[in-house]
Amino acid sequence: MEKRKFLSLIGSLKKREQKKFQRHFEVNHPRDTTLGPILDYLMKYSALSSKTWEEADIHDTFTTVFPGRSYSSKSLNNIFPRLFQHLKEFLIIEKLRDKSFEKEMLWLKVLLERRALKLFPQAINFLQTRLKRSKKIDLWFPYKELRLNYLRYYQSLNSIETKKHLNQSLVNLEDFFIGGWLKFQCECFNRANILQEPIAWTTKDEQIFHLATLNTSDNPFIKSYRYALEYLRNPDLFNFDDILSHYKSNYRSISYSDQSTLLRYLINFCSAKIREGSDEFLIYTFELYKFGLKEELFSKKDSLSSNLYLNIVELACDLSEFQWLDGFQERFIQRVVAEEKEVVKSFSDALIGYAKGDFDIAKEKLRAIKYPDPFFKLRRYALFARIYFDSEEKESDLLADHLRAFEKLLFRNKSFNPRLKEAVSNFIKLLRDLGKTGFKDYADLKERLNNTNPIYYKSWLTKRLKSLEVSQSI
Predict the structure, then answer these.
(1) Torsion angle defined by CA atoms of residues 439, 445, 449 and 451, in that order, rounded to the nearest 10 degrees
(2) Which of 16, 47, 109 is nearest to 24 (CA)?
(3) Confidence (pLDDT) at 50
(4) Of 310, 315, 319, 467, which is closest to residue 375 (Cα–Cα)?
(5) Measured on CA atoms in the order 154, 158, 162, 166, is the torsion positive or negative?
(6) Largest CA distance in the chain
(7) What pLDDT digit, counting tens, does each position of 155-172 carry?
(8) DSSP assignment string, 422-451
């Protein structure tokens, strides 16, 4: 069992990592005259032979490395378990190197235990300096700083200066917890915006929020998320130009991750306003997308999610920004993951064709898409439904047949969020009634549209209903 675990684990490492393990063993276990030569042989065996690590035989290995040397079955059977223990030790140390703060904290505790009081201040000051450099991007900075100052305080006993540092760390930790709560509540309201669902706000939440408003800290993280929570809770009390100005004035003072998060809140805030029929927020959303692209707030390691890419294309189509779209596609299509690039390009062309009224081109591009992802399928079915409605095929059975197929896709798929399923189901029901030949009860449909939540493509349905009402009144 241990043999298989060791050979499987070391075989999964890269050659560079295997060599590091070998060096680690040589440095830390120089007196082991059995395991050292065997490990050295196994390394050469895997490098020179076409066989894998798992095919290594310990009997052949031992007789090759130590010809003529006698051995017992017990000592032979212990070789791989011992190597496995050393390999685990090596991997843990490597992990500690990744989490340097934990490694250094362990080192500080060792220095204290061994009463190395001359080395301790140097080590703690070194770690404090490194920690401060990471302050802007390290969410856990206040917690780490408090741990350091506790160590410093107990080592120096009643130092007045150290006690000040410790008290300040406690204040910073309070900011940290308040900031964490603010961000959590912002995420809850943002999610409610996306899923078009109500959110509970308890008396306890109100009390914590009151504490957050009393907090006089200059911490930009707290300031930014406190302001975000205020406008997410009470969107009608805020002018969006003021919200936008506040974000652009302060976003550089927080981490890259928080810059992206707050931008996401603003975009979803605008989407909620668009669903309510406020078309001016289309322009706001477009400007936010352009700002995020310019500042690289959407790109992670030069990649762009397919969903985000298509959202940008669809919005630009709604605003007829076709010239801008040409430049966007040329520059950013390369950032979509390779296996989705062709699908995304075809879907983008279909969106552009639909926006320009070239329905045949749009349908041709959509039919060429063969991709198993359920969310792509959902977008594809929704676009087909809009094409059938806006083209002459609304009057035929194509729209009705397509909506029945759309319902089957929706209810057979288990990966969709229940709230998303409900939104798409409401879209299908309303579109089915809107597309019926001779349907005249637009007042009832308008009431249903206003009082139903959630609805997929609500703003699109609202516009189509208005245009039908106008055409009926002429």
Answers:
(1) -160
(2) 16
(3) 42
(4) 310
(5) positive
(6) 105
(7) 765 577 778 878 888 877
(8) HHHHHHHHHHHHHTSTT---HHHHHHHHHH
